[in-house]
Write the structure tokens for this entry.
Amino acid sequence: MVPIFATSTQTNLLIYVGGGGFVLLGAFYFGRIVTFFFPNNPLIKKGKKENEELTPKQKEFVEFLEKASNQSKENNDA
């Protein structure tokens, strides 16, 4: 390796950022593989179940959106 490249600040930054990107990419794919091979894992099931249920605030927001949608339909029809 050329010595000027080995001590360059830009090269060090490139190695750190690039290496960090590969670590994040590896962690993502590792999680996908674990989910694929263990779909019945209680932790995964629990997360999916929690996402299906709406919180009271979310229900209130959905009702608000439905009312707004109905009002805009009525205004368009009139």
Summary: Residues 9-37 form the longest helix (29 residues).
